[in-house]
Automatic annotation (TrEMBL):
UniProt name for this protein: Cytochrome P450
Sequence positions that bind heme: 257
Keywords, in A-Z order: Heme, Iron, Membrane, Metal-binding, Monooxygenase, Oxidoreductase, Transmembrane, Transmembrane helix
Upper lineage: Eukaryota, Viridiplantae, Streptophyta, Embryophyta, Tracheophyta
GO molecular function terms noted in the UniProt entry: heme binding; iron ion binding; monooxygenase activity; oxidoreductase activity, acting on paired donors, with incorporation or reduction of molecular oxygen
Organism per entry: Salix udensis
Pfam families membership: p450 (PF00067)
UniProt KW Lipid metabolism keyword: no
Similarity section: Belongs to the cytochrome P450 family.
Length: 322
């Protein structure tokens, strides 16, 4: 997606990157557990030292290869490369001696590392959770399809400009993200001694925010464990959905997820197209006839479905060739 498909080794690079992303999440989870043991965390870090050194080195090699492939392509094709991707554009700035801001190779690699670790599995997980909830709630699925048909018609796919006119769709996305935040925990280091909910928190302490619990707190949400998109159509709950103290799938404050808009536009285009065009026949799922998506969560630092979401898409409407 980001470094488009024109590099020769693209599939291989993407596969390597996916593997590395999941290894680094695994490592991050282990390091987070080590942190719980205070000064004894050093033992855990010592135990993980090989991985701690190895993962960044492998990322560096991977991105160096991708950079080299893009540089070779730029040499071959000259300044007028067709369909430039983000990496091509950054490389132009990198090689431009007159550029206002000079980029280093390390900065470019770090930027892509952020995009990959922050932006790939999170968005994919969100799409699966949203579609899973919709498939498991056929009445919501039907209502959403009717909304799309009435606003967009049956001749074209939904585009970004339609989203403000699809309140039920927005409510479904919000509700699924409330129940299944792909990043359920995030942290902050306290810069000063402070008091929080009656507890004294010393400076330097790492605080973990539990977005999952906050967004299922029965003191805040009625029937907190149920998928009820309609709640976000009510003024009171819709206001809760804009309140960054209680609705936090993307975190909040100055370290809030910078990829919110990008992931929303991916979620919007993919989920609406999947609902507009297909019915989903779940294979080997839950329930007496195996037709429900199993919504159990896999353990890890990000929140993914534990069991694969296996289903056959059955064409409902061929909007693509309309
Ligand atoms: C559904 C998809 C996504 C979810 C649920 C999500 C969620 C989050 C959360 C909860 C945080 C921590 C925020 C905080 O500490 O307050 C975060 C940080 C971050 N996200 Fe996302 N994210 C998503 C997609 C993306 C995308 C598409 C990108 C980039 C293309 C991205 C890049 C980042 C980065 C770089 C950070 C660290 C920001 C910082 O520390 O200043 N995320 N994300």
């Amino acid at each position: 997606m980001i470094m488009s498909a024109r590099c020769s080794g693209e599939d291989n690079q993407a596969e390597k990157c996916r593997g590395l992303v999941s290894e680094s999440f695994d490592l991050a989870a282990k390091l987070a557990v080590c942190n719980l043991f205070g000064p004894l965390k050093r033992i855990g870090i010592w135990y993980l030292r090989k991985k701690i050194a190895d993962v960044p080195k492998r990322y560096d090699e991977l991105f160096e290869n991708v950079l080299l492939e893009h540089e070779e392509k730029a040499k071959r094709e000259g300044p007028n490369i067709e369909n430039k991707d983000l990496m091509d554009i950054l490389l132009e700035v990198y090689h431009d001696e007159n550029a206002e801001i000079r980029l280093t190779r390390k900065q470019m690699k770090t930027f892509f590392l952020d995009l990959f670790t922050g932006g790939t599995s999170t968005t994919a997980d969100a799409i699966l959770w949203i579609l899973g909830e919709l498939v498991n709630h056929p009445a919501a699925y039907k209502k959403l399809r009717e909304e799309i048909d009435s606003v967009v018609g049956t001749e074209r796919l939904v585009d970004e400009a339609d989203i403000p006119n699809l309140p039920y769709f927005q409510a479904c996305v919000k509700e699924a993200m409330r129940l299944h935040p792909p990043v359920p925990l995030f942290d902050r280091v306290c810069r000063e001694n402070c008091k929080l909910a009656g507890y004294d928190i010393p400076k330097g302490i790492t605080m973990i925010m539990n977005a999952y619990s906050i967004m299922r707190d029965p003191k805040i949400w009625d029937n907190p464990n149920d998928f009820i998109p309609e709640r976000f159509l009510k003024e009171e709950d819709n206001a809760k959905g804009q309140n960054l103290q209680i609705y936090v799938p993307f975190g909040g404050g100055r370290r809030m997820c910078p990829g919110t808009n990008m992931s929303s536009s991916l979620i919007n285009s993919s989920v609406t197209a999947m609902v507009q065009c297909f019915d989903w026949k779940v294979v080997g799922g839950d329930g007496p006839d195996g037709s429900k998506v199993n919504m159990e969560t896999k353990a890890g630092v990000t929140m993914s479905l534990d069991k694969p979401f296996m289903s056959t898409p059955v064409l409902h409407r061929d909007v693509f060739s309309a």
